Amino acid sequence: MIQEGTRSSTEAVATLPRLRELLDAATVAAGRAQARYSGYPVGAAILDAWGVIHAGCNVESAAFAATICAERGAVAAAVAGGAGGLIACVTVTRDGDPASCCGACRQLLAEFGHGLLIVNGSLTSDRLRWGTVADWLPHGFTRASLEGIPAPAGSQG
Ligand code: THU
């Protein structure tokens, strides 16, 4: 398991050879973010098991709760694009330290396996935050939690 922490660029590329490409795709997506309320654009790039990269960006709403984060946008794009499994999710923010994925995004990413690699970068920081879903969401409630639970009587399953 990759432990949460920061990585030098050499270590980073050794672990995830397509990191540069993923950071570039996330940066392009961040440039397309609709972040007019927070002023905090985020881009995400997901590498799937076929080697395809799927991008997402945050899309904010005047009804704030309807806002979608970059990571969940990228997950939706990956699923709609026919991704086999998800290998890594790389995010880029414009300012400050790399943004850590919010709880809702961790929960959705956990759907695709505890080993999924999460990397957070920022255009103004040379540090990358690394970890797996298992690091990001310890003791998470996932589909495994529902295994073996009998369906309620009369449910469609
Ligand atoms: N946001 C993301 O898209 N991903 C993150 O990892 C952190 C936060 C977005 C949500 C909102 O549009 C803005 O950043 C400020 O919270």
Layout of strands and helices, then pairs:
Elements: E1 5-7, H1 9-15, H2 19-30, E2 42-48, E3 53-57, H3 70-80, E4 86-93, H4 103-110, E5 117-122, E6 125-132, H5 133-136, H6 143-146
Parallel strand pairs: 4-5
Antiparallel strand pairs: 1-6, 2-3, 2-4, 5-6
Descriptive terms for the model:
157 residues, alpha+beta, binds tetrahydrodeoxyuridine
In terms of DSSP E residues, the strand content is 15-25%
Major β-sheet annotation: 6 strands, mixed
| Radius of gyration based on Cα positions | 16 Å
Q: What is the count of DSSP helices, taking H or I runs of 4+ residues?
A: 6
Helical fraction equals: 25-40%
Low-confidence segments, given as residue ranges, are none
Give every kind of bound small molecule, once each.
tetrahydrodeoxyuridine
* Number of DSSP E strands: 6
Q: Overall 3D geometry?
A: globular
Q: What is the terminal-to-terminal distance?
A: 34 Å
Question: Please, what is the oligomeric state?
Answer: single chain
Strand order of the largest sheet: 1-6-5-4-2-3
SSE class: alpha+beta
Mean pLDDT equals 93
Secondary-structure element string: EHHEEHEHEEHH
Describe the protein's architecture and organization.
The protein has 157 residues and is an alpha+beta fold. Helix content is 29%, strand content 24%. The chain has six helices and six strands; from the N terminus they run βααββαβαββαα. The protein has helices at 9-15, 19-30, 70-80, 103-110, 133-136, 143-146, and strands at 5-7, 42-48, 53-57, 86-93, 117-122, 125-132. Helix 4 links the parallel strand 4 (86-93) and strand 5. The longest helix is centred in the first third of the chain and has 12 residues, at 19-30. It is globular. It starts with a strand and ends in an 11-residue tail after the last helix. The chain binds tetrahydrodeoxyuridine. The site of tetrahydrodeoxyuridine (THU) has 14 residues, from helix 3.
